[in-house]
């Protein structure tokens, strides 16, 4: 099990595959026996994965087969799988938990346990347990962007944290990050194409991820150039309507999210300032109570009550900071990366149109469309199809996520008021109590 | 040390009419029972407030607020008849005059305080302007409360000046001034002096004074922090209103989520608006606390009066002792203590026996008078302590009762606020669930 750093890391938790009984199942009961052959990934599905993985346009011009039938059938399969995706038909489960701090001579960092349970054939074993650090997640995301440029890759929590402002090793920060990393992997797991990505597989299973990374780098240097799926320099005349609509939607969407983020932050700020005053307010009742005889208990009661409200408010603000704001920011990052994918799509379309135009201008040649242009056309169609499918999936997930997020926000506020209500209701009898009845 | 009495006053207790300006309660008018209190016989309300302009004492134009006092006899209502309502207008300065009169005339009574003259303990939404309608309204309620307090006080309710204040529109000011009460008011300097120099005040009054100082301090602090708390709470609620707007804008670009977002936004607006009523209600609680903040001053006034009387007594006793001593010295010719007179007489020759005799006689007369005065001062002082302490006990019970009620009503307000909060967020949650 690689710890990744030089020097002697502290002993890490055991990392080998555990028996089913020992490992908690992320979802409902293990249903490996329920999974019929119909639900295992069809052979067709393997194709798009390998197509997407391979460099469709190598710098040295080696063409790769991207014939349409595979793309369209893959699209069908993707849609089919979407409808079937629920707990019982899932065949891949990934969880991120158990953060641990590693103190080494060179640096201090956190690793997270990544647990995988699967029945997929692409995996040699049914279960895996590895430890990964943020760097590794970042690497994975980059690899996915490179190898699946036509798809929307989920966002990671922010990479850089201003030291001194936020404690990178505080429980709250680590927990917030863990949740985001867990979400990240789960989103990939749910994706019918991304979840079959080779790098994802390695990420989940490799004992020594660094060795694999280095291998990849070596290959890269052999190639001599970045294998990013970017065709340079073509300008798109006009975005097709549906993608223009997506682009506009994303613009407004991220704008509104930004506003909501600011409002939420402002509310938290106002709440904390309110809390400061409340913390001074409660004890004054206590001071007064010390002066009085008959009113002593009622005043103390009010003081304690206000104290309870302070605690409740503190919890509310903490919850909002830890659970609400990060998800908003995740979606803002998501929108940004999606807009980039849209731009890439534009590039691909632009290249195709330019090449098509070039052919049309060459009147002397026979009007046969060269394979080069054909490939460009395929690329465009493939990209569009992938993107549309991903957008639909994204819209659905977004709806679920925001429904859950906003309901959660409402819930937290309800819980806050309920705590305060309980506190105030409980002192009414104390206030009404007559000294003679004691 | 013999306890001393207050200085003898010129006016003798009258059989009826204006109360005497001494430390004694009018002996012919025993304290009324609760049933006899004016408050039970008469309905008193301060029903309206009106802006007026007029000319003040320096013939400069001024704007002030006049308050309508309405009174109606209670008895006839049981017969199904409605007694006629009498009314007259008074301004705040007249209330002040009334209270000053009562404080001087009944120094052993914890006289109910007036509502604040100027708006204090404001937070940003409240106006510090005396002409602000909200301030005027709260003052109107405070003035009514003041009148009701006086009318339900067993001693104060019987005062004729108070009765005239409620019923006699013209000439009331002159009537008050004719009582000459201003002359009987103790100077602040005198009171301060007594406070520092008194040697043997009744311990209970010293403790009470200490208590009233602390009470004043703690309630002031409480009111100040409460105002800041109100300010911050206002901010929290109002910012939520921004959600309303942004949810509305966001819903415009959404398909299935749109309706849920839009209606949730509406609830956020409701939430933001709800704070106005909540905080307005809380102002009543603040006013209840303020009344007792000002009551602390009234308590202190009674303690000061005791200290003054006690100091007077001590001074009188001291004076008497020194006169007796002088007498003794003159009679026996011995000088027990060093005195300048003794020295000068030694230096410039003794007095003649006739001179000595005359001096002795004067002294003996003075001692006689002094002893009588001391006796009556003693009596006055003891009566004062007794009646003051009785009123203080009455006040303590009233205070405990009122403040308990105020705390209960405050808790009820908080409960209501929490319930409203739960309601709004539950509604919003339902809208979100439909997204």
Set down the secondary structure blueprint.
The complex is a heterodimer of chains A (438) and B (435).
Chain A: H1 43-53, H2 68-84, E1 92-103, E2 108-118, E3 127-133, H3 134-147, H4 171-190, H5 198-205, H6 209-223, H7 241-291, H8 296-361, H9 371-432
Antiparallel strand pairs in A: 1-2, 2-3
Chain B: H1 38-41, E1 42-55, E2 61-73, E3 86-91, H2 92-105, H3 133-151, H4 160-167, H5 172-178, H6 181-184, H7 188-197, H8 203-251, H9 258-332, H10 340-348, H11 353-433
Antiparallel strand pairs in B: 1-2, 2-3
Helix pairs in contact in B: 7-9, 8-9, 9-11
Describe this structure in words.
The complex is a heterodimer of chains A (438) and B (435). Chain A has helices at residues 43-53, 68-84, 134-147, 171-190, 198-205, 209-223, 241-291, 296-361, 371-432, and strands at 92-103, 108-118, 127-133. Chain A is mainly alpha-helical. The N and C termini of chain A lie far apart (68 Å). Chain B has 435 residues and is mainly alpha-helical. Chain B contains eleven helices and three strands. Chain B has helices at 38-41, 92-105, 133-151, 160-167, 172-178, 181-184, 188-197, 203-251, 258-332, 340-348, 353-433, and strands at 42-55, 61-73, 86-91. Classes of the chains: A mainly alpha (438), B mainly alpha (435). Chain A: One of its GO terms (molecular function) is phosphatidylinositol binding.
